[in-house]
Every structure is written in structure tokens, then in C-alpha cells.
Design brief:
There is one protein chain. The protein has about 400 residues and is of the alpha/beta class. The protein is about 35% helix and about 20% strand. It is built from 15 helices and 16 strands. The chain has helices at about 90-95, 100-105, 110-120, 120-140, 155-170, 195-210, 230-240, 255-265, 275-285, 295-300, 305-310, 335-345, 350-355, 355-360, 390-395; strands at about 5-15, 30-40, 45-50, 60-65, 70, 75-80, 140-145, 175-180, 215-220, 245-250, 270, 290, 315-320, 380-385, 400-405, 410. The strands form 2 sheets. Strands 1, 2, 3, 4, 5, 14, 15 and 16 form an 8-stranded mixed β-sheet that branches. The chain has an 8-stranded parallel β-sheet with strand order 6-7-8-9-10-11-12-13. α4 packs across α5, α5 packs parallel to α6 and α12 (about 335-345) crosses α13 (about 350-355). The longest helix is centred in the middle third of the chain and has 18 residues, at about 195-210. The protein is globular, with a radius of gyration of 21 Å. Bound molecules: N-(iminomethyl)-L-glutamic acid and fe (iii) ion (FE). N-(iminomethyl)-L-glutamic acid binds near residues 110 and 248.
Length: about 400
């Protein structure tokens, strides 16, 4: 492959390589140089500098940014992008006033998505998921975590995880896989929680570990779903097989999941729409990253997670989409950045760091993604000519992206 250069970049953002996840005040520092060039060799960043020092290189492929801005590609550390069908009927129910919990109780929600996955072939599920992956890459996502959890039977959970494995093999995005068999209790186990948990521990997990199908374990810890004790039990079974916990907690209720997540040293505690004061403090003091999913709070018309309180108490926070058919049918990270700024009062720099380097830490792809430094994957976003970084969240819902490069290749 010829050397590649991007020239005349008005602002080159994210040129840092923190050794640990950014916390508190650190989140507002997004290093940048103006009037820059970027050098790419094969699939990696090779260097960068001021245009004044641009090295003329024979045979190199040069892309003129024409005053556009360059950012690291987004690191979306929480998605459910493998799903079989959309759920716009529930959207109508919601418009008419039903709550998320009421829809779930009606047999809608996660159980509805599980039926659709159970009835679909692996190839068709792969085809749909591949299309979604291409779509989010065009929105600028270069690394993504994808969960199972719409299978809820051994066969269908394995089908989802095999689809994720095929996505990993075929795609040049960095992909991490999470087992979320404990997303809901299937109908047949509604009154037999112990039976389903046993199935997860004794049937699903050993097969998943044998086929190396997952990097993490997740549980939907929530009233009406999995209790704190059940969550801990499932996580410990996963941890014994090398899967670290990344958990759905405090979405609808604060049932005491944060102390459990912190005790288990979970990589991340995700959602956090409902946080008592002491939960904020405990999470802020811990190593667990708080992953905020403002698209879900927006779509479900809920209160937003307390981003400012978390940042003020020195927490490490990441931003992700939660891309799924039930609570966030949108995989566009830039939309999440707008929501973070508009609804959670995050500064643009904080939101971009939370959506890039901290997202990378939240799925342990930080050695290859999340910032622009030599040796990392050349996965970057080139914007149109924009007046400032702040313009990106400000101009919500618009399309400021000019081109996206994933692992050294322009994809558009
Ligand atoms: O992260 N909260 C649990 N799981 C998903 C939504 C699942 C669904 O409604 O399909 C979420 O919001
Ligand atoms: Fe989720």
C-alpha cells in the first residue's frame, strides 16, 4: 500500500495517548494541532505535524482535507446491533402513553426481539447486522462492542455470538463481543429464575467459552429482570471463564447494583439514568467506567444520567449509543454527542473524549483505537469545513462528515 497523507487539516483532534481512562477534569482536555497533516502507513497512524513541516513524499497518496477537521473514529462501547426485527409498533404504544415496563409486561420488548432472532437463520441475521455495521462506520464509528441477549435460548444466543464472530472476522472495525444471555427471563422460565440461571451457567457459558465467542459478560440488572444477587451469581460464573463484567444497571431503578458492579470490578456500569447520591459517589471513586447512553434516555423520554455530578466527583465516563430496536434505534454517535451536550451539559471536548478514548477503555481497545497517535489503527473522521469543534454537537442531526477512514482505508 502506498503511504497516505491527509493535508490541510484545519484542526487535528485527539492526539493523545493516556495510559488510563480519563476522569473528572481530564475529560475536558482534547489535544489538538491546527493546520496539520496526518501520515498513514498500511492500517496505522504513522505520524502527524504542522503543514509547515509537511514532508513531500514521492508516490504517496495525498488527500486534501481542504480545511476539514480530523478526529479519531468513535468507539461505541455498548450496542445490541445484532437483532432481527425493528419494533416500531411499540414506538406507537409509547406515543400512546405506555411505559417501557408496561410494554415488557405485555410480552413486547426484549421477548419480542428474542422470538424474531430465534426464527431467523444465522445467515440472514449476519446479513442484516453487516448492513448495520456498514451504516455506523459511515457515521464514523471505528470500534464497537456488540451484545447477544436477543436469543434467550442456548441455540439462539450462540447464533447471535457466532454472527458477532463473523462480523469480527470480516470487518476492519475493531469489534468486541459480550454475552448477555441474562437480558430477560424467557417465558418458560418466568417463574423459575433459578432454572434459567442454571441454564446460563451450566449450558450456555461453557459452550461460549469453548468456542471463544465472548469477551465480556453482561446482565440486565433491574426490577422485573435480574436482581442484584442474580446478577452477581451470573457474573461470577462468567468471570470464572475469563469474561469480565460490563453491566446494564440503574436504567429504571436504583436497586443497589452499583456496589455490586464495583465489588466485581466491572469494566463498565452502563445506563445510570436513575442514580441515588451515594451511587454516584461510589461509582466515581471506583475503577468502573460509567457508560452513559443518552439515546436511550431520549427515546424512552426518561431523565438523563447525571453526567455533571459524575464528572464533578472525578468519575470516568464513556458515551455510547446502545443501538438496539427497543430503546435506541439509532447508531449515530454524533447524535449521542449532541444529546450529551444539550441534555447532560457535557462540554464538547468532554463528550468527544467520552465517545473516543474513554469508549475505547470501556471495551479495552485503547491500545489500537480512541485517539490519533503513531501505532494506533488509522480509523479517523474527516469532517467538512466546520468553524469549531463546538459546531459538531451544536448542529445536531446534520451531516458534517466528509469522509471516514477505517484501518487505513477510506470507506466513502
Ligand atoms: O440497553 N435495557 C436493556 N436492554 C436494552 C433495551 C432492550 C430492548 O428493549 O430491546 C437497553 O436499553
Ligand atoms: Fe443496552
Amino acid at each position: 500500500m502506498p503511504s497516505k497523507f491527509i493535508t490541510n487539516i484545519a484542526y487535528l483532534y485527539g492526539i493523545h495517548s493516556p495510559q488510563t481512562v480519563l476522569r473528572g477534569k481530564e475529560l475536558s482536555v482534547l489535544p489538538c494541532i491546527e493546520n496539520a497533516y496526518l501520515h498513514i502507513e498500511d492500517d496505522e497512524i504513522a505520524g502527524y505535524g504542522s503543514m509547515e513541516d509537511f514532508p513531500a513524499r514521492k508516490g504517496a497518496e495525498i488527500t486534501n482535507a481542504n480545511g476539514g477537521t480530523v478526529l479519531p473514529a468513535w468507539c461505541d462501547s455498548h450496542t445490541h446491533l445484532v437483532f432481527a426485527g425493528t419494533r416500531e409498533n411499540e414506538f406507537l404504544d409509547k406515543i400512546k402513553g405506555l411505559t417501557y415496563a408496561e410494554i415488557a409486561a405485555k410480552g413486547g420488548g426484549i421477548l419480542h426481539s428474542a422470538k424474531a432472532v430465534q426464527d431467523m437463520s444465522e445467515d440472514e441475521l449476519f446479513r442484516l447486522s453487516w448492513e448495520r455495521l456498514q451504516d455506523i462506520a459511515k457515521f464514523g464509528t471505528g470500534a464497537v462492542e456488540i451484545k447477544s441477549g436477543y436469543g434467550l435460548s442456548t441455540e439462539a444466543e450462540l447464533k447471535m455470538l457466532r454472527v458477532i464472530k463473523r462480523l469480527k472476522e470480516k470487518s476492519s472495525l475493531q469489534i468486541k463481543s459480550t454475552f448477555l444471555g441474562a437480558h430477560a427471563f424467557p417465558e418458560a422460565f418466568r417463574d423459575n429464575h433459578a432454572g434459567y440461571i442454571q441454564k446460563i451457567k451450566e449450558e450456555m457459558l461453557p459452550m461460549i467459552a469453548a468456542e471463544k465467542l465472548a469477551d465480556y459478560i453482561d446482565v440486565f440488572c433491574e426490577k422485573g429482570f435480574f436482581s442484584v444477587e442474580e446478577t452477581e451469581e451470573i457474573c461470577k460464573a462468567g468471570m470464572a471463564l475469563g469474561l469480565k463484567p460490563k453491566l446494564h444497571v440503574n436504567q429504571l431503578n436504583d436497586i443497589g447494583a452499583i456496589p455490586m458492579a464495583v465489588k466485581l470490578n466491572a469494566i463498565s456500569a452502563d445506563h445510570l439514568e436513575t442514580m441515588e447520591e451515594e451511587s454516584v459517589t461510589m461509582l466515581a471513586k471506583s475503577n468502573t467506567i460509567g457508560t452513559l447512553l443518552p439515546g436511550a434516555a431520549f427515546f424512552l423520554n426518561m431523565q438523563f444520567p447525571p453526567a455533571r455530578a459524575l464528572i464533578n466527583q472525578n468519575a470516568a465516563i464513556a458515551l455510547a449509543t446502545d443501538y438496539n430496536p427497543g430503546s435506541c434505534p439509532c447508531g449515530n454517535m454524533l447524535m449521542m454527542i449532541s444529546l450529551a451536550c444539550i441534555k447532560m451539559k457535557m462540554l464538547p471536548e468532554e463528550a468527544v473524549n467520552a465517545a473516543t478514548i474513554n469508549g475505547a477503555f470501556a471495551m479495552e481497545t485503547n491500545s489500537t483505537t480512541g485517539s490519533i497517535i503513531p501505532g494506533k489503527k488509522a480509523s479517523i473522521i474527516l469532517t467538512k469545513k466546520i468553524p469549531s469543534l463546538t459546531y459538531l454537537p451544536y448542529a445536531f442531526g446534520t451531516h458534517p462528515i466528509q469522509r471516514v477512514m477505517i484501518s487505513g482505508e477510506w470507506i466513502n
